Amino acid sequence: MSTHPVDTAMKGILLAGGSGTRLHPMTLAASKQLLPVYDKPMIFYPLSTLMLAGIRDIMIISTPADLPQFERLLGDGSRYGVRFTYRVQPTPDGIAQAFVIAGDWLDGAPCALALGDNLIFADHLGVLLRAAARRTEGATVFAYQVRDPERYGVVAFDDDGRACDLVEKPEQPPSNWAVTGLYFYDARVGELARRIQPSPRGELEITDLNRIYLEEGSLHVERLGRGCAWLDAGMPDSLMQAGLFVQTIQSRQGMLVGSPAEVAFRMGYIDADQLRAIATTMGKTELGRLLHELANGEVPR
């Protein structure tokens, strides 16, 4: 399925911090977001999601120890036709802290935030993302049904199907609809994030930011239904499930999942020669072969 570039003033933040304690001892030596999900580093998947939304100006936020590794992996973004900026999160003080850290860089621009351990897959995902990126007022979040909603921020709906409440990691979840790690906000997000007070956990909670939009009636909740997959790869079981999911899609359908190079090509950010050059750097890997086929027009655009 081909896509086309989208003009958007929206910027993107990719939050790849934290200590990854749920994945110890693996994350004692490497950032969680650098661990492999099948054939790509974990961070490639949310990065591809932001790019698919038409966002080309992206800040990567990580720990002081891990940030140089992301710079080495991703560079300045020019190979993908985008621009990367890097900034440190000294301590993991909550997801909403990202907007405080990036406040001067945002400079009043609307922004999307993606968590570095989240993978979202759907055939129509690009349409949903670009619609959210074009929305000029309010915020958009994506909800997904899960069996263990107590692990997440949870959204409740009224009898008319409208979002009516948001609760962070509730002991008694009001629904099984979890808010995924992908958020779109209007130009007020930097200002609103600075109003949030730390929660009892000592963190600036993204749920508190979302609740501001909910209470003013400008929070749009997009429910991801059948045909969509959302995977939080932050624990050993979910990390393995994510890898098996990607392996199944790619090997059965010959369709790439979570490849920034593929998205850049399909979005028109790079041309076939640039894609071919990226594929060549991957040697004789299956990923390199699939990118060569795409550059050579051997798979549908």
TrEMBL record:
Q: Which UniProt keywords apply?
A: Magnesium, Metal-binding, Nucleotidyltransferase, Transferase
Q: What is the lineage of its organism?
A: Bacteria, Pseudomonadati, Pseudomonadota, Alphaproteobacteria, Acetobacterales
| Family label | Belongs to the glucose-1-phosphate thymidylyltransferase family.
The answer, when asked if Coiled coil is one of the entry's keywords, is: no
What is catalyzed by this enzyme? Answer: dTTP + alpha-D-glucose 1-phosphate + H(+) = dTDP-alpha-D-glucose + diphosphate
Write the Enzyme Commission number(s) for this entry.
2.7.7.24
Q: Matching NCBIfam families, A to Z?
A: rmlA (TIGR01207)
Keyword Metal-binding part of the UniProt annotation: yes
Q: Which GO terms describe its molecular function?
A: glucose-1-phosphate thymidylyltransferase activity; metal ion binding
What is the name attached to this protein's record?
Glucose-1-phosphate thymidylyltransferase
Cofactor(s) demanded: Mg(2+)
Q: Name one Pfam family in it.
A: NTP_transferase
**Free-text function comment from the UniProt entry:** Catalyzes the formation of dTDP-glucose, from dTTP and glucose 1-phosphate, as well as its pyrophosphorolysis.
